[in-house]
TrEMBL record:
The protein's name in its UniProt record: Neutral alpha-glucosidase AB
Main location: endoplasmic reticulum
DUF5110 domain ranges (all copies): 845-901
Residue ranges that the Swiss-Prot or TrEMBL entry lists as coiled coil: none
Residue ranges constituting the Glycoside hydrolase family 31 TIM barrel domain according to the UniProt record: 405-732
Pfam (any one): Glyco_hydro_31_3rd
Family (UniProt): Belongs to the glycosyl hydrolase 31 family.
Amino acid sequence: MAAAAAPRRRARADFVLAWLGLCLSTAWAVDRSNFKTCDQSSFCKRQRSVQPGSSPYRALLDTLELGPDALTVHLVNEVTKAVLLLELQGLQGNMTRIRIDELKPLRARYRVPDVLVADPPTARLSISGRDENSVELTVAEGPYKIILTGRPFRLDLLENRSLVLSVNARGLMVFEHQRLPRNSFSDKVSLTFGSIWDKIKNLFSREGTKEPAEGDGTPEEEAAGKADKPEENSEKDDDEPGAWEEMFKTHSDSKPFGPTSVGLDFSLPGMEHVYGIPEHADSLRLKVTEGGEPYRLYNLDVFQYELYNPMALYGSVPVLLAHNVHRDLGIFWLNAAETWVDISSNTAGKTLFGKMLDYLQGGGETPQTDVRWMSESGIIDVFLLLGPTASDVFRQYTSLTGTQALPPLFSLGYHQSRWNYRDEADVIDVDQGFDNHDLPCDVIWLDIEHADGKRYFTWDSSRFPQPLAMLGHLAGKRRKLVAIVDPHIKVDSGYRVHEELRSLGLYVKTRDGSDYEGWCWPGSVGYPDFTNVKMRDWWANMFNFDKYEGSASNLYVWNDMNEPSVFNGPEVTMLKDARHHGGWEHRDVHNIYGLYVHMATAQGLIQRSGGVERPFVLSRAFFAGSQRFGAVWTGDNTAEWDHLKITIPMCLSLGLVGISFCGADVGGFFKNPDPELLLRWYQMGAYQPFYRAHSHMDTGRREPWLLPPEYLGPVRDALRQRYALLPFWYTLFYRAHRDGHPVMRPLWVQYPKDVTTFSQDDQFMLGDSLLVHPVAEPGARGVQVYLPGQGEVWYDVQSYQKHHGPQTLYLPVTLSSIPVFQRGGTIIPRWERVRRSSDCMKDDPITLYVAISPQGTAEGELYLDDGHTFNYQTQNEYLLRKFTFSGNTLTSSSADPRGHLETPIWIERVVILGAGKPASVLLRSEGLPESVLTFQHSAETSVLTLRKPGVRVSADWSIHLR
Ligand code: NOJ
């Protein structure tokens, strides 16, 4: 008893100190000393100490084997003699996969399961040329050739003889093969237990080595770290501090398996602009990291995060995109361990003038970006997504990891949250506040205080005695509730969730096999091992209505703290030597843990409805593939103007790597925004995918009606604009779901040849139709908007004024302005009868906004379904309509004949921007006599409004301007 209590007391003391540290810190900035720099992360330091030069790795071309799905070849490190196995695959759709593992690992290395949606279909490789040091490979059906060079090892991908990408060209590959610690065990035991060594050797022989099985590979954990193999221990790095045990502050990482990191470099000739690898609070375009810190990918709960630096945040997606005027490509580094990414460029620091001078002097190197990935464990598993366009890269990446889940319609509406709404009466008041002030709202949120002592899946009975009645009240208003369910479980023998998890052995374990305990909101907590499918199934079952008492079908879920956050752990997270199912260390799975929590919760919400209803789950941590499970947000931001601005690059970066459903706490989580900042945040949030106001418990209440009237009006307008555009949002999400296209996009995706757009992250596009330039400065009287596109026209959606691109436009703004432009050539559907919630609007008639291009054309689409079930998938119950304007005729036709939907929705108005005045307007619709439509034309704005076409949205029809 006493022995068990001591570590707990120590943990509590650590926690109290950490908590005091947090509370006493007066400066509004992250305490950087809580988080490692590359130098403090021993593997990053070791990897980074390797300088560009000749690689010690050689591909043994005589071991090359070409199978139907892959080529394999041995790589030898000529210094250590360690042998690796390289597996190279051509994949269908212009992708290449490279895997490198140890040929005979002492212990299977972690291969990330559950991220790929399927085994990617391969494209046959054939040998098309060969000399003594290289082999040329051709990929079937692809324009690419791959050259494999033996000494030093290198891969070059060429398209039509020009080099697109090289692997290990800088010779930075480092693969720390597993070995046994020097002077540890054998010196002491060899005399006594000489025969043990033979046994261990047998265990580690090829036959004895477990093949890593995706999903549940079981490493030979017992052996490693307890034996020695002297001839393998001559390497210098064995002796480096941190290689076999690492300290950070008071935390020790026991590293029983020694150094296991992997690293590889990729050279991208012709590339100067790279993006992606979220999550960082930094600019959209990634910066060169030489001489500074690499970008870090390690899911962390960072208190008061700082802007414009490469520190890790709550989620990680190890995908980088490169873009130039000719092409796009992507690198997907599938590894769930702590990862650092270094970026260097031969043009970094050169001014445009300097580059021009180089060019004029006939010299100057071709610009090139080099990217170096370094991960603490696992294997090298990398997908080269060869584009060539950005939309190809989106399609390629989402063909591997899945597309954005189609959100239920309500979740695209407005969400009202704070930490915390006090009790049921408070919730009902807030709900009523929206109605009293004529503000639409779909969801009210409950944070951790709603549960009984932070025992998730329960309710505090004094403050929430009748949750079902409260949910029923909201359902009557056609609104929803989201309740938080965090993935740490209070250690409390009276708490059923804890008791079951403990007795089922489903908690993460310490390296010694006992349940791992850390500190989080409830005090001492256990961490369910979500990497175990049994755990996920158990968790999913917890959302059944009979298990989660007081829940109902309009209750949805928020998963927070799933990095996982451990207040008394190293860097506020879990010890790396904690053990997961299958014997894997937390080190191996850290970055995927949060995805598994999200996955299990989404599964639970689907299951509770018998597979009928689409889930909505918000998660703070994420990884590659998280888009399949719901939404994410950018965590604990601050009520400051710079935090408002950073939401744009943060969500754009996520969209580029598949996660479209992104948002930031409107108003800022920490501190109190002044009315102007809060208003500008409402206006910006209205045009970002996930729209939720949220704030810390120490902040003042800030429901919109608490604002002075001159601010409340514009907030109402912003909310109404959001709701009016719901059919457009829903259609964009359908596209993201079907084709992997980001909903919120950087301008360069739409204008790939316009270099002005390549670094822009103060404005963005929604689909290919709307350009948004939020007002993000206090006291702004105007904004400079860049309107791209030679020969493009843009219509201001407030004034309908037409502007020509490309130009930088100074647009005067007032408090009620949100500069938004509709691109000429697009058609946008809107619901203009804004009501209490999206559910009240879902059968409302549609207004089409047709913005005519200089060529007199426009097109757009509309996706509709029931808004909440999977029937669109299982029964084809949906509509995808295509609208085309050309030759003064607007036509509506089906864009997907498989879909069908019984719907009362009709077209109530058509607004044509940039139109002359017609003599008459005729409507033709299937099965109806031709009719004449009444219209109104404004000569001043060139806006033609056609009243009441009255046609069904599902019908084919055409409108003719004569
Ligand atoms: C941290 C989350 O980021 C924040 O949104 C939430 O309010 C608190 N945890 C309390 O649950």
